[in-house]
Design a protein that fits this description.
With 304 residues, the chain is α+β, with helices and mostly antiparallel strands. The chain folds into three domains: 12-107 and 198-227, Periplasmic binding protein-like II (D-Maltodextrin-Binding Protein, domain 2); 109-196, 3-Layer(aba) Sandwich (D-Maltodextrin-Binding Protein, domain 2); 232-298, Alpha-Beta Plaits. It is 27% helix and 33% strand. The chain is built from nine helices and 16 strands. The chain has helices at 23-31, 63-68, 79-91, 137-147, 163-166, 180-184, 209-227, 243-248, 280-288, and strands at residues 12-17, 37-39, 45-48, 53-58, 74-78, 98-103, 109-116, 131-134, 152-155, 171-176, 187-196, 198-203, 232-239, 253-260, 267-274, 292-298. The strands form three sheets. The protein has a seven-stranded mixed beta sheet, sandwiched between helices. Strands 9-8-10-7-11 form a five-stranded mixed beta sheet. A four-stranded antiparallel beta sheet has the order 14-15-13-16, covered by helices on one side. Strand 3 and strand 4 (53-58) form a beta hairpin. Helix 3 crosses helix 4 (137-147). It starts with 11 loop residues before the first strand and ends in a 6-residue tail after the last strand. The model has no long low-confidence stretch (mean pLDDT 93). It binds 1-O-pyrophosphono-5-O-phosphono-alpha-D-ribofuranose and zinc ion. The site of zinc ion has 2 residues, from loops. Residues 59-222 form the ATP phosphoribosyltransferase catalytic domain. It is an enzyme of class 2 (transferase). Belongs to the ATP phosphoribosyltransferase family. Long subfamily. Its EC number is 2.4.2.17. It catalyses: 1-(5-phospho-beta-D-ribosyl)-ATP + diphosphate = 5-phospho-alpha-D-ribose 1-diphosphate + ATP.
């Protein structure tokens, strides 16, 4: 029997993008939650080894549907894909079947309107009667409706950025990450419709018994991993009188621990979990402010 069929499942199944922008960071995030897999030869299904949590490697656009159909329990996908398909389902009068469970803090991009370089952009009102090419017709239509603008939505499955030059549309609505694609096509981003990033997607309702416990454990680990993702543990020593000044340099530190040293009445040891970037420049500032023996340690996980 194929691992993809068979009625009741006590294993959890997570769909991620097979290849593309979100694929590697999604795997790395799940691995940081203690998951590991035995790769199958076709690399579409990875059997979970440390935990009964398997991976399905698919096209990102298929992920919401796989969750809706119960083929997968969870997925890592762009918010843009999830909301577009949710909008499409709603427009067709279908029930809500999936939702965003957690933002994941990577794969950031924006769904934006972009106009040809020569345009003099004066705001959304200018869009009336225009043709807008996009792969996100539901999100664009909803936005146009909210703005009270009647424009024509031209749905394309890809290569949206060349539509204005081909005369298929006057402007486009597409994802912008670095902005390189727009620039290469003489287009200028003018309006943001949606801030997107990778999210953990799951069913609209909760899981039943067997898988609920497993999903809860995964979420706990995920929250712990996300919380310390960019965090570092900072250790140093300093004279007591310099403490206020030093703490003012650590606005991103979570309640720093201050300890008295065995020797030296006036000296303290500090330990702080910093959520911002701990750069060389910050270390140098702390040193100038009187800190000694600065040490930065990576944080691998946290269980609140
Ligand atoms: C998006 C979008 C652009 C490109 C923009 O496609 O459709 O082609 O990324 O990125 P840039 O601003 O860094 O140049 P994506 O890679 O997400 O692929 P897909 O939409 O075909 O899944
Ligand atoms: Zn895609």
């Amino acid at each position: 029997m194929s691992p993809l069929t068979g009625a009741p499942r006590d294993r959890l199944r997570i769909a991620i993008q097979k290849s593309g922008r979100l694929s590697e960071p999604a795997r790395a995030l799940l691995a940081s939650c203690g998951l590991s897999w035995r790769e199958s030869r076709d690399r579409l299904f990875c059997y979970g080894e440390t935990l009964p949590i398997d991976l399905l490697l698919v096209r990102d656009d298929d992920i919401p549907g796989l969750i809706a159909d119960g083929v997968c329990d969870l997925g890592i996908v762009g918010r843009n894909v999830l909301l577009e398909q949710a909008g499409e389902r709603a427009a067709n009068g279908r029930a809500e079947a999936f939702r965003e469970w957690r933002p994941l803090g990577f794969g950031g991009c924006r769904l934006m309107l972009a106009v040809p370089d020569g345009w003099d952009w004066r705001g959304p009102a200018q869009l009336a009667g225009r043709r807008i090419a996009t792969s996100y017709p539901a999100l664009l239509s909803n936005w146009l409706q909210e703005q009270g603008i009647a424009a024509q939505v031209v749905t394309l499955s890809g290569s949206v950025e060349i539509a204005p030059r081909l005369g298929q549309a006057d402007l486009i609505c597409d994802l912008v990450s670095s902005g390189a694609t727009l620039a290469a096509n003489q287009l200028r981003p003018v309006q943001t419709l949606l801030e997107s990033e990778a999210v953990l997607a799951g069913p609209a309702r909760d899981f039943e018994a067997e898988r609920a416990e497993l999903a809860e454990m995964l979420l706990r680990r995920l929250d712990g991993a996300l919380r310390v993702r960019h965090s570092k543990l900072l250790l140093f020593q300093a004279p007591r009188r310099l403490l206020p000044q030093l703490l003012s340099l650590l606005p991103d530190a979570e309640s720093p621990t201050v300890m008295r040293l065995d020797q030296g009445e006036d000296d303290l040891a500090l330990q702080a979990l910093c959520h911002g970037a701990v750069t060389w420049q910050r270390l140098e500032e702390l040193k100038r402010a009187g800190a000694r023996g600065l040490m930065v340690l990576p944080v691998e996980g946290m269980l609140a």
